[in-house]
Each structure stands twice: as C-alpha cells, then as structure tokens.
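Section 5: illustrative case.
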C-alpha cells in the first residue's frame, strides 16, 4: 500500500499527467521539402529555448560532438489479404521470429485462430506467368503479450519473405497520417541500411546528404545503431500508474565501433546526442550493466522521469503523441512540466507534430560544452 501511495504522490508517474490537447490540424500529413527545412525547437537549459531550422544543426553543435543515428530500414510491412472464405484481413509485420515466421498484428484478430490461412495477391512480374501471384501465411499461435499472431509464410525455396514484400506489401504509415501524398521513400531516412522496421525512426527523416556533409565539415562525428521499430515503440501506455507498463521487446544492435566512438567522445569531454528515441533506448540498453558494452538482442527498456542516464547527453526528436512511452522518455531528459510547456508553445506557434512533423533538440549541455 505504501508503494501505491508514493506513486500517487508523484504526478510524473501517472498516465494522466502526460495528456495534452492537440488541434487536429497540427498533425503533419506530409513532410516539408527539403527534409532539413523542418522547424527545430532548441531547449538547451532548464530556463531557455529558441526556434531554429533543422538545416542550422551544424551551427548548434560543437566539433567533437557525436551524433548517433538508427540505420534501420522500414520494410513494406503492411499486407492486405483474404481468408479462404473471402473475408478481408490486414496484417502488420512486427519482427521475424525465425526464417519466414513473423510476429504480426492482424485485423480482425478474433477470427484468426491457429491453423487459419491468409492469402495475399499481387500482380505477377514474370513474363508468361499468371497475371496474379499469391503468397500464403498460416497462423501458428497467438501471442498474449502483444495480442498479435505468429504467422508462417510459405515462400518459394531460396527466397525470404523480405524479398517479396515490395510486391505484396506497402509502407505502413501511422494511423494518424490519413491524407499523405508523400512517396514511400520519404518515410525512410537517407542513411537507412538494415531492413526490419515496421515504422521509421522519424527524428532521422530531417537529415539530407548535404546536411550530413556539413556536419562532417564542422567536425561533428557520427555513429550508428540498429533498432528495428516494432510494437514496443508505438504500443500505447494503458496503465494508470506508468510503472506498471511493460514494454515489448525490440531487436537492437550496438556495435563495437559505436561503443568505441562514444568512449572517445566522452573522454574528450564532448557530448553524445541521440537522433531519436530508438537510439536512446539502444544506447541506454547497452549500458544497463553499468558500463557501455557492445550489445545485440532484445530490449524492453522503459525510460520515464527518475531514470538515471548512462550514455546520452542530448536528444533530437519529433513531437510525440499524448500518453505515449516516447513522451515519457523525453520527459525523463528535460522534465515533464518543462516538456509540456514547450509543447504548448509549439502548438501556439503552429509547429507540425508527429512522424512528418518538426523536431526538437533537447538536453542540459552545461556539463560538457557551452556551444549550444
């Protein structure tokens, strides 16, 4: 009982404290062009902030700082198929459990019990073949933790499902993007390399090749991690006391080269700046043992106010949904009340929100460099 009382006395641990009102017109339906012309709200101390443009990022960082980016590549993870009865089925692939066996969210789920089959169709690209090609998946099991299904796909020998997704699937834009004219590549970072994400790491969408070149010229280093975005990132928090929320695992890899770059950056007294919440979770997961080490595996790390930071000094991030685990993570860096104040001002100034929206550069950098 005492533990519950202490939680109730700390408003930062209550789900209701992460609510805010967002006018629907502030939800960006299309990205700005060019990518780096998005607005950037810079909050570099507990008391000050200013408004910039993302292309100005090299001027806001100092030589020797390290940007860490997520090089995952979004796959065409949404598929539309039918049961043998003809009933429509929508599938969102989350992560591969074994060769061609995937955890997926399915609609409608209640009628897709183990043994059920789903057939997907696509125009054939083989001369002389039937005009329509098909792909079949069988439901193996239901996963209680996510409410998803384990699907086994029947693919031709020597072929992996990911090789077929360009034909059978489409890029899964978030549900709040309902009227987008953006081509699929605009929901992909320019440095995306490793396929596997069900959603883009959207903070990275603002970078262009030209901007990366100017960061290089400024002496700002960069390194990469890979976190394949899945249900853990975008599943809503429902527990009234957020300490009861359980993050679902997502696959992450933090390599030896990235760890070495971070150690060198810290040894020089410079800053490690994560590009996106997925990078934050990757780096902090790699340091959960108390020391940053190369890491490859599943992470279920949930960061909220009170978290003791191990690696990350600053964060580039977009604006996040109310009551989301991502909003809680960012609150852990700058404080919940401070963050909601910044959100209110951003709304008043007509910033664009969510995946195709504007960005923030956050952190208290006084401990390292006064350059920001």
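Designed sequence:
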């Amino acid at each position: 009982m005492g533990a519950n009382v202490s939680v109730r006395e700390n408003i930062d641990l209550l789900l209701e404290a992460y609510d805010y009102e967002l006018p629907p017109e502030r939800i960006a339906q299309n990205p700005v062009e060019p990518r780096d012309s998005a607005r950037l709200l810079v909050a570099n101390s507990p008391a000050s902030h200013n408004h910039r443009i993302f292309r100005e990022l090299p001027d806001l960082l100092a030589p020797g700082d390290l940007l860490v980016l997520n090089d995952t590549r979004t796959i065409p993870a949404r598929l539309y198929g039918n049961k043998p009865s003809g009933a429509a089925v929508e599938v969102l692939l989350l992560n591969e459990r074994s060769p061609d066996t995937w955890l997926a969210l399915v609609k409608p789920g209640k009628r897709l019990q183990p043994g059920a089959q789903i057939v997907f169709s696509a125009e054939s690209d083989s001369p002389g073949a039937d005009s329509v090609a098909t792909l079949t998946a069988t439901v193996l099991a239901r996963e209680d933790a996510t409410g998803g299904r384990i699907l086994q796909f029947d693919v031709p020998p020597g072929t992996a499902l990911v090789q077929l997704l360009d034909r059978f699937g489409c890029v899964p834009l978030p549900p709040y993007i309902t009227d987008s004219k953006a081509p699929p590549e605009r929901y992909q970072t320019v440095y995306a390399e490793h396929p596997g994400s069900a959603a883009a790491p959207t903070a990275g969408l603002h970078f262009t090749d030209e901007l990366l070149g100017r960061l290089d010229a400024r002496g700002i280093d960069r390194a990469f991690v890979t976190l394949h975005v899945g249900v853990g990132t975008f599943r809503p928090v429902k527990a009234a006391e957020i300490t009861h929320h359980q993050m679902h695992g997502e696959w992450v890899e933090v390599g030896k080269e990235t760890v070495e770059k971070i150690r060198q950056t810290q040894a020089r007294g410079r800053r490690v700046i994560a590009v996106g919440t997925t990078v934050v979770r990757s780096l902090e997961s790699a340091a959960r043992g108390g020391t940053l080490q190369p890491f490859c595996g599943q992470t279920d790390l949930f960061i909220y106010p009170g978290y003791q930071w191990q690696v990350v000094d600053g964060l580039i991030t977009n604006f996040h949904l109310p009551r989301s685990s991502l909003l809680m993570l960012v609150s852990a860096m700058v404080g919940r009340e401070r963050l909601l104040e910044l959100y209110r001002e951003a709304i008043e100034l007509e910033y664009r929100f969510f995946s195709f929206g504007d960005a923030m550069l956050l952190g208290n950098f006084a401990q390292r460099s006064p350059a920001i």
